[in-house]
Amino acid sequence: MKKYSVYLILAFVALGLTQCRNAARKDSTETAKETNENKEVSSEEQADFLVEAASSGIWAMEMAKLAEEKAQYARVRNFAKLLRDEHSKLNEEIRSLGAKKQLTLPGVLDPDHQDHLAELKRLSAKAFDKRLMEMMEKEHREAIEDFEDASENHKDSDIQTFAAKTLPLLRAHLDSVKMIRTAIGGR
Fold first, then answer.
1. What's the total number of domains in the chain?
2. At 104, which CATH number?
3. Closest Cα partner for 173 from 57, 37, 10?
4. d(Cα 94, Cα 97) in Å, to the nearest integer?
5. Which residues contact 94 (CB under 8 A, 6 or more apart)?
6. Angle, to 10 degrees, between the axis of helix 44-70 and the axis of helix 74-100?
7. What is the pLDDT of residues 121-152, one digit of tens each?
8. What is the phi-psi region of residue 124: left when phi exceeds 0, alpha when psi lies from -120 to 50, beta otherwise?
9. How far apart are CA 107 and CA 56, in angstroms?
10. Which residues have C-beta within 8 Å of that of residue 69, sequence separation ≥ 6?
């Protein structure tokens, strides 16, 4: 009976620790969306676009920082520095537009991106470069799709203008990523 009680207690402790970990890992993107839903100063469409753009920008910065440290190929490191510099400016524009619209934006990586970052950190340098560029291509394709939609269909003229202005930069990043992937044998 004592043995059963000990196992039961251990199970509850393990469950409690899991819940604490999940609470601590609360998705900052979802938290920002929830906060914005409680405000009645903007449309959900405004909030969602800027929250997702901010989340993507944080992820781009984290990927770039890690790549500058870990990448094997100079071409990947150089692109990472360019990406960090350009997304730093872009992220500032997103924060500024969010503030103008009185929106809450995420300030840290969401759990999915944290998992991707952890995956990248575990890889060897050569595997890292290929996987990083694969992730960058996917992220930039998705961002371009979102920004194209916002530039054509968004109801907020500030967001529409911002999205249209940002598209050439995102497309240039995607073109660079494709060339680098080809050069390092990523395709």
1. 1
2. 1.20.1260.10
3. 57
4. 5
5. 50, 53, 54, 57, 105, 162
6. 150
7. 999 988 999 999 999 999 999 999 999 999 99
8. beta
9. 11
10. none
- Residue reference for tokens 């609470």: 23
What is the domain range of residue 144? 2-183
CA distance 135 to 125: 15
pTM of the model: 0.76
